[in-house]
């Protein structure tokens, strides 16, 4: 009687492997640009604002594409939708460096849209296939995501030097892990076995206050993250750090995110709710940012590590909220679509306004204050989102108050 039990186990292992490979590709398209951003700007005559638009586009389209993910998944199934997105991601990364300014911007936008679709569906797949290990699996794939982001941030500038100081093949290199993920996802899952999702639900999340708190927290912590991804090497270079070291500092910061990406959701799962952990990790993020912008360069590596520990926790807690604030996989996917769609669209203004503020004030001092305000509002939203409640639950205090108001 042993053989029949092997199939479900094998399916779960292959699903886990596929999730990790997709997670590995959720950030290299974004973090590979900032280490060579100055070279791109010089080569293509982009102003600081133009460079800000380049770092903003993938985040903006990540947000714009996110609400489409649950709609497409209901027709094609979550796994098939992920397969199409990761394959298109590989193609966009191939085209991005070699089609001039237009190709650079269009390719970046397309890559962001693909990442948005994949990022929305992963929490739903975890909720569906690993319902008893949501926090652990969320932390694990967030750690893999951080690993991919870190490698891209740290290796892109050395790759440019390896390719005769040409940033184009250095950016194009990152299509390789995306192509591998697409091939493995296809060969191991088998497109004909991809399940379809349930019919469209009736209740709207956009009238749920808890869903909005999750969304605002997701968006604001992402605004901080993408500002770091897009601008930290440039900020450090303006402070006198050489390009390789600046890229390495970003890489180290992202690499240490692995620690809190796993630890923060796991520790929070043993607490009454997620509020304390959210306040802790956002505070660490703000402390690390302040160190990178204002502290002496002798404290650079300490600041980068603190920043990474904070951001690993803020992101993994955001993804955890998408799963634990929903009662089922379909609601988790819908909440993920709302939170990442609205949230990432909001987050896109982080790197954009950072570039604008630099152009206006010719420095990074005001940027630090701007990022601090974002972090404080994120804490306020997180205190609401971290409560042990469920979206679309008539027993939630906010839902009861809303119903009484309607009466």
From TrEMBL:
UniProt keyword Transmembrane helix present: yes
Signal peptide: none
Domain of life: Bacteria
TM ranges: 53-73, 82-99, 105-122, 134-155, 167-186, 210-232, 244-264, 276-297, 303-324, 336-357, 363-385
SUPFAM superfamilies in UniProt: MFS general substrate transporter
Major facilitator superfamily (MFS) profile domain: residues covered: 207-407
Entry keyword annotation includes Membrane: yes
Keywords tagged on the record: Membrane, Transmembrane, Transmembrane helix
InterPro entries noted in UniProt: MFS, MFS_Cyanate_Porter, MFS_dom, MFS_trans_sf
Name the record gives this protein: CynX/NimT family MFS transporter
Biological classification of the source: Bacteria, Pseudomonadati, Pseudomonadota, Gammaproteobacteria, Cellvibrionales
């Amino acid at each position: 009687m042993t053989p029949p039990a092997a199939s479900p186990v094998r399916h779960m292992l292959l699903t886990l492997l596929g999730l990790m490979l997709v997670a590995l590709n959720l950030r290299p398209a974004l973090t590979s640009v900032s280490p060579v951003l100055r070279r791109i700007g010089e080569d293509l005559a982009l102003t600081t604002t133009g460079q800000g638009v380049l770092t903003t586009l993938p985040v903006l389209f990540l947000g714009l594409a996110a609400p489409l993910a649950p709609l497409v998944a209901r027709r094609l199934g979550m796994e098939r939708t992920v397969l199409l997105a990761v394959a298109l991601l590989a193609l966009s990364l191939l085209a991005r460096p070699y089609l001039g300014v237009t190709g650079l911007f269009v390719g970046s936008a397309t890559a962001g849209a693909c990442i948005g679709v994949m990022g929305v569906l992963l929490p739903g797949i975890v909720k569906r296939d690993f319902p008893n290990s949501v926090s652990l699996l969320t932390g694990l794939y967030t750690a893999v995501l951080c690993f991919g982001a870190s490698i891209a941030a740290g290796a892109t500038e050395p790759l440019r030097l390896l390719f005769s100081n040409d940033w184009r093949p250095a950016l194009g290199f990152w299509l390789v892990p995306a192509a591998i993920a697409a091939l493995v996802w296809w060969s191991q899952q088998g497109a004909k076995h991809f399940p379809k999702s349930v019919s469209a639900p009736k209740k709207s999340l956009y009238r749920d206050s808890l869903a909005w708190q999750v969304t605002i927290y997701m968006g604001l912590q992402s605004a901080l993250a993408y500002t770091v991804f897009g601008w930290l090497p440039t900020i450090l270079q303006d402070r006198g750090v050489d390009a390789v070291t600046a890229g390495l500092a970003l890489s180290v910061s992202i690499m240490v995110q692995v620690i809190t990406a796993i630890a923060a959701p796991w520790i929070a799962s043993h607490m009454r709710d997620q509020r304390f952990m959210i306040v802790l990790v956002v505070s660490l993020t703000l402390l690390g940012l302040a160190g990178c912008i204002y502290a002496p360069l002798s404290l650079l590596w300490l600041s980068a590590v603190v920043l990474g520990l904070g951001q690993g926790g803020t992101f993994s807690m955001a993804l955890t909220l998408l799963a634990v604030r929903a009662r089922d996989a379909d609601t988790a996917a819908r909440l993920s679509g709302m939170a990442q769609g609205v949230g990432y669209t909001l987050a896109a203004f982080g790197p954009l306004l950072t570039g604008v503020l630099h152009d206006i004030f010719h420095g990074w001092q005001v940027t630090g204050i701007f990022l601090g305000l974002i972090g404080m509002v994120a804490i306020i939203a997180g205190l609401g989102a971290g409560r042990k409640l469920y979206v679309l639950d008539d027993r939630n205090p906010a839902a009861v108050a809303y119903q009484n108001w309607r009466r």
